[in-house]
Amino acid sequence: MFDEKKLIVLEDLFQNKDFQENFFDYAKERKLKDDEDVVIVVCHEDKLAVSRIKNKFSMIEEFSLLSGPALTSWAKKEFKKNEAEINSEAFKKLIAYVGNDLWRLSGEINKLVNYRGGEEIKEEDIDLLVKANLDANIFKTLDALAQRDKKTALWLIHEHLERGDNEMYLLSMLAYQLRNLIRLKDLIERGEPYYSLAQKSGLHPYVVKKSSEQLRNFTLDDLKKIYRRLAEIDFKIKVGLTDGPTAIDLLVAEL
């Protein structure tokens, strides 16, 4: 009576050239471009993804994750919908802790609103009720490394590993924050004023604030050295020369 509907989900399509070519050949052979009963979802981080596939399918619609002003605006509307007030520092911390997971962000907002019972939500409420993403806890790990507090840095790292967090993801987040620090340190050393760092770097103001505090204990050479070691560790883990926990322990011990 009805044609069967099909859903195809592709992740990291553009990171494997052979798979990409094979899939496009398959799509052409099966005439997926003209098949209205097939929906293809491409999960990607490639800014050129749409342009790469626009001629492959009949209709394309892009759903981007909210970020920057769009994410801020969405969250503010959620508070307004709940008739709740939150001070600016608490709001910045909430966004930094939760990120652009809108489902979770909505739940955290509801939890905060119910907890405060009509009173203004403050920064201490975020610390009490909202569990930071791994991304946010990276700040604490790098804080410990900046202070040369190896014991705390190792404890934080192993806390994540024991909880089941993937060591490659942990390394990727450390690398991401180190890139942020290098970017900011370079801007500062070139004389860029503090008030323009967020705009020039493309980072959230809260991330700039937290990162700037860490930069006091790192030179640009320090940051580049750690970043290079992370890249070496990433390579060794991927080719099987070492395991993740051991490599991370050695990295911290060397600092």
TrEMBL record:
Catalysis: reaction(s): DNA(n) + a 2'-deoxyribonucleoside 5'-triphosphate = DNA(n+1) + diphosphate
EC identifiers of the protein: 2.7.7.7
Family annotation (Gene3D superfamilies): 1.10.8.60, 1.20.272.10
GO biological-process terms attached to the record: DNA-templated DNA replication
Source domain of life: Bacteria
Family matches, as InterPro entries: DNA_pol3_clamp-load_cplx_C, DNA_pol3_delta-like_C, DNA_polIII_delta, P-loop_NTPase
Residues in DNA polymerase III delta subunit-like C-terminal domain copies: 136-254
Cellular component, GO annotation: DNA polymerase III complex
Keyword entries, A-Z: DNA replication, DNA-directed DNA polymerase, Nucleotidyltransferase, Transferase
GO molecular function, one term: DNA-directed DNA polymerase activity
NCBIfam families to which the protein is assigned, alphabetical: holA
Protein family (similarity comment): Belongs to the DNA polymerase HolA subunit family.
Protein name per its UniProtKB record: DNA-directed DNA polymerase
Species of the source: Candidatus Portnoybacteria bacterium CG_4_8_14_3_um_filter_44_15
